[in-house]
Each structure stands twice: as C-alpha cells, then as structure tokens.
Amino acid sequence: MLRGREGWNRRGSASSPPDGGPVRLLDPALRVVPFSGRDSEMADLTSWSGGSDRVRVRLLTGLGGSGKSRIAVELGVRLVRRRWRPVWLDPADEPRDVAVACRGPRVLVVVDDAASFPRLDEQLGALREAEAGRIRVLLLARTGREWWTRLRWASTLWSVPAGVPTSMAHIGPPAMSLDRMVRTAASAFASRLAVQAPELTVGDQPADADPPRFGDVHAAVLAVLADRENGGTGTVVDVGRGPAALLDQERDRWAETDAVVARALLCGGRRDLPDRLAELHVARTLTAAPGMTEVCTARITPDEACEVAMFAFRLDVDTPAVTGAGRLTAALLERVASQVSDRPEHLQRILRLFPARPAPAAQAVVLASRLVAMVTATAAGRDTPDQAEALGAWARALEEAGRSDEALDPAERAEAMWRRITRTDPLRYRVALWRAMRDLAVVSFGTGREKEHAQLVEETVSAWSSAPETESVWTEPELAWGMHALELTTAPGSVDAARWYHERAVSLLRGLVARDPVAHEEVLARVQANLLLLVNRGRPGEALEGLRESVSIRRRLTRDRPDAFERHLAYSLSNLSHALAGIGQAAEALAAGQEALALRRRVVRKAASADGNGVPRLRFELAWSLSGVGVLLSEQGRPHEALSLEEEALSIRRDLAREAPDRYREELATSCSNLGVTYSRLGRFGDALRLEQEAVEIRRELVRRSSSSRHRQHLARSLSNLGVRYSDMGRTEDAVEPTREAVSLMRQVARDDRWQHLPDLATALANLGATFTDLSRAHDAIGPLHEAVGALRDLSREHPEKHLPGLASALTALAVALGEQRRYVSAAASAREAVRIRDGLAAMDQRRFGDDLARSVRVLADMEAVLPKDGSRTGQFITARSERA
C-alpha cells in the first residue's frame, strides 16, 4: 500500500481517533457513523467494479462534505471481502512505485482530491505497466473541469487502441431524511465519546436552503454533543451553522492565532482539519478584517504560492457561507500570481484548475504568457503538447479578458500545433485538437470572423459526432458546445433548425450537469441565456422558460461568487427583459432590465477601480442595458426618465465606435435611432431628426458592406422612423421617400422570414399610410393601412399585449383615410374597433393610453356624426402613426 497522506487526509483501517478534539471523529477512515443512505451509489460502484475489462476509470464528483471519501472507504471494505486490494494514491508517489503497488489480480486504486495531484497523468499512465488482472481507478473530486479533460490526452493510460472504459457519476443529496441522519450520527458519536445520546431536534431550515450534506449534519451533531460534554444543555441541531460551531470549539484547543492557522492551511502546512472546516476557517479569517489576505500570504515561497492557488480553486468550487468569501478566489490568485515560480509544472498546475473562462482573467493572462515563454524556450523549435497547451490557455485567458484580437494569434498557433502533433498519434491527441479548434472558433467569433468560425464549428461537430461511443465522456461536452454554436450561426429564416440545435445542446448539458454540476451548470445557463435568438426571430414566447432557467441558475451562482458570475447574471436578465418586452409584459421586462443595469454598473465600477478603465466589452454591455431600459421607459410613456439613460448609452457607443468602428457602429446607429424617438416624444423634433439621419447614414454604409437581412432590417427601421421625424417637423413631403424605401426593404427581408420581420413591415406600412393621409392622399394611404391592419391582427393573436396598441393606431389611421374618401361606414367600423381596443388598454394603464383613446373616440364621433347625412365630412380628423425603436 502506498504512503498515505499525513494527518487528516490519511486513509486506511484506523480503529481509533488520533490525538485531537471531537472533530477527528469526522475522519471517513474511522467509519464512526454507520454507512447508510447511499444504496444506489454503492450498487452502481459495485457493478462498475465488475466486468472483464482490464482497466476501468470513474470520476466521482460531489461538493465538500457530500461523502465522496466515505463512499470510497466503504467500497474498499466491501471489495476486500471479494479479494480486492485497495490502494490509495498520494500526490508525491512516483509512477514506478504506483506500478509496483498495483500488481495483483484485483486492485482498487483510489485518488482522493484528484484535482490536486500534479502528476496524476503520469501516475495513471504507470498502471499500463502494472502486472495486474483487473484495475479499477476511482477518482474523487469536487468537479472535473480542465484537469479532467486533459487526462484524456496527457496520460498514456488511454492511448491504447482498445480504449479504457471511462465514466462519471455525481453524489447528490442522501436518500434518507434529515431526522434519521441526526439520530444515527448522535448515537454513533455519543458511543465514541462515551456519553449518553440525548434526544436531539433539528432546527428550522431556510426555505431556499440547499439539501443538507452528510458532513454538515455530522458536524452539527458533533458540535452539540461536544458542547454538552463541556456543560452545555443544547439539544437543537443547527445544520446550517454546524461546521462553524464545531470549528469554534476546535479553535479553543489551538495555541496559535487564527491568522497563523489560516496561513498554515493556505500554504499546505497543516492537514488536521477536514477540507470543509479548513476552508471555512480561512474564509472567516481573511474576511474578518481588511488586509488579512495580505497578512496570511506575506513572504510565501513559490511552492507555497502554488498551494495557495490550489486552496483558491477549492474555494472557487465550493464557497463557504461567509460574507465576502466569494471574492477570495480572485483575491488569493491576485495576491500570489506574481510569486509563483517560472517552473512550468507550477504554472500548468494552476491554469489547469480553472474553467475555460478563467477567473480572474487578468492573472490568468499573466500566468499563461509566462508559461508560453517558458515552454517555448525549452521546446527549441519543436512541437510539444506542453507548448500547444500553454498557447491554448493563453488564448482562453485573453478572450475572457475581452482581448479577442490579441487572443487570435495564440489560438491559431495552438490549433495548428495540435494538428501537427495529432498526426503523430491521432488516438491519443485528437481530443486536444478538438478543444483547440473550439477555442479558435470562439476567438474567431469574438473578432467578427464569422466565416472561419462557421467552418471550424462544422469540422469539430463532424469529428465529435463520429467519435465512438466509448469516447462519449470526453466528447459530449464538446458536442454540446458545437450544437450551441450551430444554433448561433443558423440562417435568420431557419428558426426550426436553430431550435433543434438548441434542444440537442440542452439535452446533452442536462446529462452532463447530472454528472458534474460544477463544471456544466453554468454552461447550461449560458446556452439557455442565448435564446435571445428566438426573440429576434419573432418567437419570444418560446424563449421564456429557458431564459428563466438561466436567470435562476446564475442567480444562485452569483449569491455565492458575485465577482465571478454577476456579469453573466446581468446577461441573462437583459435577454429575459428583451423577451418579456417582445410579448408585451412591460412591467416585468422593466424590472429585469433594471436589475441587469444595476449589475453592469457595478461590474464596470469594479473594473475601473482595478485598472483605471472599463474594458470595451464591459462598457458595451453597460450601454446595451442603458439602451434597453431607456427604450422600455420611453415606450411606457416615461420619456423624461428614459432620456439620461439613452444619452449615456449613446455617449458610450460613440466612444466605442471611435476605438473600433467596424465592431461598434451598428450599436451606435441603434442608440441614435432610439434616442431620436425619445427626443421626439419630448418635443425635441430637430434633435430627433439629426440623430435619425445619422443612424440612416451609418446603416446605409453597413448595408453597402454586407447585404445581410439584419442590416437591411435595421436600415428599414431607421428609414421608417426618419419619415416620422420629417412629419414631426412639418416636412410631410420629405417623409414619403424614406418611408416608401423602408416598406420596400422590409418586403425584401420578409421574404426570408415573414414572421420575424412582420412587426417591422407592419410599422413601415402604417407610417407610410399615415404620411399619405397627412398629405390628403387617401387613395394612396388605404392600401398600406389595410395591409398593416391585417399584419397587426395576425401578430395580436399571438402576443396581444405587444401588438394591440399598434393595431389600434393603424385602425384609427385607416378610419381617417376612409373618411377622406367618404367611406363612412367602413371608417366607423375601423374607428369602433380602435376604440374597443384602446378602451381595454386604458383600463389597464390610463396614463399611457388615455390620450390615444381620446383620439380614437373623436375620430369615431366624427364618422358617426356624418353617417345619417349626405356624406359630407365634418369635424377634425386626427392622424395616428406608430414607431418601433
């Protein structure tokens, strides 16, 4: 049996607790509490250990305190009865010693906290040399993430034609009631402490509390028993505070200060606490007073800096319930990044721990660039996996930091290098190549290279789809990403195809979340957040469920780690707001948009305080929220509140467009157009006209460069609004030409996808009809207005809250035009329908729709006044028009 870890982490057949307080009874190796509540997991692992395969590997994931180590101990005990021999690896074990230790007919290899093993790829590769009948490798970790994916190509264990069956499983909540867990633990701990087991009751749990973990329940019970042993009389088990209460009792035994212990735990100098209590103590100590992070990491060695980064990784995965703990991952990495040595193994170890979106990105960029320099120097012009891996890590870090243009070169070099390396050993390295192709596709998309992005996505999806079933544990995450990428790049009219890709990606991700939620739950939220595509394609109702799920996941993640996830929560909220607005749920849309705006302001403030400026991507996102909330307020009859938000959005977008015109001019045109509408509603018609003219000029240039339906649609919107701006100024003749052009353009793009573009076409038609009516050209107005009314009727059946106001406006304009032609019966019918619609709208929001109702009532009164007479027209007619920003 190999050397076990010292202190808390040693494993074996211990029969009595080592020196220390009651906390030592939590050691899984002691098996103090009878094993129960895990029948399904144990049956699954027992079945997995059978079979004729020489080697099988399984990754078992679960958060701290969920019982991973205890399950492995119990599995080993049961397999011993079947003549298996458990071997627990240590990070320091030499690969040759691993090969020797794993000889035998049946060997169970357990790797606890596998993510912390710096040479795990070599240690597992040594199993190929072990003279054994059957080997089962059980890896225990809180999550897979990058280190797990890397094993597929980094270790020679998988580089055999026959392949090694590899699987993943996750430990969920225990299959037993909380009361039973408490009773069982109380009886077991009381027996070891030689006290009488009291009758304990479970304290109230918050409604939104996560399911209890075995470790937390056992800590809470042990805290009550230990307190009673010292004269306490408590009988209430507070599961939420259990670890903290037990830790407080353990602290009474320490001679050192909290800061000294926290430093030792951070730097790997102590192993006498369970990880969950160690992380809790560090989190409480570092957040207790300003500057404690600096105090506890002062004058550390390069090796200690690496240990601190490992500790930060565990905090990133499973943040303790301590205010401010979510910021410790970034704070610790920022503190030690410059102190990590230039030894490639140290830099590689840190970069492999964190997800494809590194956090914090700035430190990841520095570490990755140092790694690239080191491995390039030692490669001496040769292609090496270490060099290709380092280039990929650098590209990912630059992309996450909003530096897509800089990320392109290392991403391209990494992908080209992996192609060459893979030719020498396709079976071993193809997964690494596919990941590099994905990274390059992401960067290509971020730099606007849509053609290159599409080609890479097609190639990678084809490769992943054709991989054998035995590779599914490695290929499914990549295939899910590929399906999502295909969704993003489908043609505008291919809504059903995009929906199919989306559902396929979500299906794959749900299976992945069930096996490793830490690694994949945020990815699921990201995919669901991008349902904005359905909104833009005229089907917002279909997007709501997925967008709400995305918000729910990210809200939970942000609660624990705000610095890492609040920006992504803002993205989901912003898209949910857009979808809600698309179906007319204005109040809920505004609430979601305002929450997203508040989050983005906070993110930009933090970035500005960190480096003196907000990165362009963050400022772009802030402008998006400012513009979105401004439009919602303006459309709800609150233009004075919208004004400052839209002016701020325009200012940011002007700055961005000056820095990178090709990337940001489209958004600049949108802000010009939106603010123009708001100026018009405030009576600032001259300012509104100038802004819309600028928007038209920008969008004409975009159409000249690319005749995509999106650019033509946006140009048509601006032209339609430009016509309204001319009418506002009394230049009705000037309004005809741009409005006619808007209708013509919208007819063209509507041929690609009528339902998506129907609202804009209806708006342009209604505005054209209103313009002709203003010019007393009723014969020209009636056709466009009839068509607009028909389109708006269809749209209103699907989303009445969104389109009924526009339908009422078009009906009122049609009544005026029909009246001009003395077709009073038809005019009165249109006016009556408009009054019915606006009466219902005004009943819900008198402030917003009251004036519109009054206009329709006056038009109807004029029509009815002349119906019994000789057909002459009397009264003043009010022209209605609609706008869409």
UniProtKB/TrEMBL annotation:
Q: Which UniProt keywords apply?
A: Repeat, TPR repeat
SMART domains with a match to the protein in the record? TPR
Respond yes or no to whether keyword Calcium is given for this record.
no
Coiled-coil residue windows: none
Every Novel STAND NTPase domain range:
52-150
Query: Which Gene3D superfamilies has this protein been placed in?
Result: Tetratricopeptide repeat domain (1.25.40.10)
Stored InterPro entries: nSTAND_NTPase5_dom (IPR057574), P-loop_NTPase (IPR027417), TPR-like_helical_dom_sf (IPR011990), TPR_rpt (IPR019734)
The lineage's top-level taxon is Bacteria
Return the Pfam families for the record.
Answer: nSTAND_NTPase5 (PF25199), TPR_10 (PF13374)
**Renumbered residue ranges of the record's region Disordered:** 1-23
User: What is the protein's name according to its record?
Assistant: Tetratricopeptide repeat protein
Organism this protein belongs to: Myceligenerans salitolerans
